[in-house]
Design brief:
mainly alpha; two-stranded antiparallel sheet; 8 strands; 39% helix; globular
Length: 547
């Protein structure tokens, strides 16, 4: 990857941006435009600015984002990165078979500098950073135009989100590694061919500068929930403050981000859901239109995480993501979320009224019978398969246009609870947590029911509530927790090759840079340390939640 080719800071003056697909083609082969030239071009062709702004969002869940010319089934934008991070965690896994494109994450061979999976996860955020910086550069720095300021603020929030999508995974946490190398920052005056890694502290300071600007200049208004407004900017800053240990600020931002949103009710999540931007608890999400889904229908969130697609890798190859029994067995039967997964007997009350019909023969199955219902495009499901994620167009639909949640109000509540606790307000933290769980998930909830510390109880709630949405490794890295998939032989349903534990300080937890990045940016010194895990290793490790 040549950073000067994908930074998108400069575009050819005679070319109009009609979509983010075209942006790759508009970067000049040699040299670059100055900020003044960019602004002159935008003044002459304002529609190009609007197309670039729209492309900044439409690329987020678009197939072929990392490899535009290749029909890879594992190349589907930011949701793919979230999926990969949870597959590297302890609580979600796919089967160890020849159809699992994410086995690199299950076995942790994702540290290979020449593999596609880590390359896609690296290049997609930097491509979006380039588009965001094109939006920012489109206007004079001292503009007073409210519409321009709004777009700049959204672009700066997106840029912060992009760096947050990379920074936690290339180095250890802020508290222990603040002065250690993290990732390159694409500043306007940098030499992209020799751009060393900024420190963890420098990256997060840069992130906070963007988020502070976005919070100051955005309002609650926006055209749709796939764009950024003040709630989103506050939510991103709550995440950043939590990661940095600014707990008072994290609690305040998380509380403010909730304004205007309510959690999904018990009834709302007692059936498969989490597929539609219109869901009331979504603060921000990716709009996967039917047109986007048809670009390469397997390369979509619905294809990989939903059990209910009639044309998908998950259902069609027996790779519906499953929950680790170490976590599942800790969920009380009174908690509606236990039904987000099948039990050992492939039962869940949450799909009792759903029916799947084979479109060719007309044969059908309802409720628990769906698990072993098979036809050409559906295999039998494994015990503990997830049915958390429904299907936007209905069970068995073949248009994989499920939207993707980037931020839900429930996450903000859990950030608020954790930040209050870590800021010394244990009683208030307990109240926030209890009110959420008892009202919206489990009326019988007891905060002491698992005999965990309050900090680990909150992490338990995050692991259950946000399962499959890409938060496990973010939490494990910032909390300094090991990845615990097994307590020894016979204690987990993880495939044997994925059944190992990784210590919190193991260098293998830090991603490696793609080889093409190191070839084209001589300033990069790669991560080292650790080695690829082996089955059964570190079986004595515990994480404080699944002990």
């Amino acid at each position: 990857m040549r950073l000067h080719r994908i930074s998108f800071l400069m575009l050819g003056a005679a070319v109009l941006a009609t979509s983010c697909d075209d942006i790759d083609k508009m970067v000049p082969e040699g040299g670059s435009l100055t900020a003044e030239q960019v602004q002159e071009t935008n003044t002459a062709s304002p529609e190009r600015v609007q197309a670039t702004f729209a492309g900044m969002f439409s690329m987020m869940g678009k197939p072929r984002t990392g490899y535009p010319t290749s029909s890879r089934a594992d190349d589907w934008g930011f949701p793919m990165a979230a999926f990969s991070l949870d597959a590297e965690g302890a609580d979600m896994f796919l089967q160890d078979n020849d159809y699992n494109w994410f086995s690199t994450c299950g076995e942790y061979s994702s540290r290979n500098a020449n593999y596609a999976n880590p390359y896609i996860r690296y290049v997609v955020p930097y491509r979006q950073i380039g588009i965001a910086q094109e939006v920012i550069a489109a206007y004079p720095a001292d503009t007073e135009d409210p519409a321009a300021i709004n777009q700049i603020a959204q672009a700066r929030a997106i840029r912060a989100f992009d760096y947050m999508s990379l920074a936690p995974y290339f180095q250890f946490n802020y508290q222990t590694a603040k002065d250690q190398p993290c990732i390159p920052i694409l500043r306007e005056d940098v030499d992209y061919a020799n751009n060393p890694r900024a420190t963890v502290g420098e990256v997060w300071d840069y992130i906070m500068e963007d988020l502070n600007y976005a919070v100051e200049h955005l309002t609650a208004d926006r055209s749709s929930k796939d764009q950024v407004n003040k709630n989103v900017a506050l939510g991103l800053r709550a995440r950043a403050n939590l990661f940095m240990g600014n707990y008072k600020e994290a609690a305040a931002d998380a509380a403010a981000a909730q304004e205007g949103f309510t959690p999904a009710s018990i009834a709302d999540v007692s059936v498969p859901a989490f597929v539609d931007l219109a869901e009331k608890n979504w603060i921000w999400g990716i709009n996967i239109t039917p047109e986007i889904a048809q670009i390469f229908i397997y390369a979509t969130p619905a294809s990989w995480i939903s059990a209910f697609s009639g044309y998908a890798y998950a259902a069609g190859t027996g790779n519906v993501p499953c929950i680790n029994t170490l976590l599942y067995n800790k969920i009380p039967d009174t908690d509606v979320r236990k039904g987000w997964w099948l039990d050992a007997n492939k039962h869940s009350p949450n799909w009792a009224h759903l029916t799947w019909v084979d479109p060719t023969t007309g044969a059908s199955a309802t409720g628990d019978d769906i698990a072993d219902f098979e036809y050409d495009d559906k295999m039998a499901m494994e015990p503990y398969s997830n049915i958390k994620f429904g299907m936007k167009d209905g069970v068995g639909a073949t248009t994989n246009n499920n939207d993707w949640p980037l931020m839900r109000v429930e996450e903000m509540i859990l950030i608020q609870a954790e930040a209050l606790l870590r800021d010394g307000n244990e009683s208030q933290a307990r109240t926030v947590l209890e009110n959420f769980v008892k009202t919206y998930r489990d009326p019988s909830y007891s905060v002491t029911g698992r005999n965990l510390s309050l900090a680990d109880e909150i992490w338990f709630q995050r692991r259950v509530e946000l399962w499959g949405e890409g938060f496990f490794m973010f939490d494990a890295k910032r909390l300094g927790k090991p990845v615990v998939r097994t307590h020894g032989d016979g204690t987990t349903n993880q495939p044997a090759n994925f059944a190992f534990n990784i210590a919190a300080d193991d260098g293998w937890l830090n991603l490696r840079f793609p080889q093409t990045e190191m070839d084209n940016n001589i300033g990069i010194i790669d991560n080292t340390g650790g080695q690829m895990p082996t089955p059964g290793q570190n079986a004595n490790l515990r994480d404080g939640v699944t002990d």
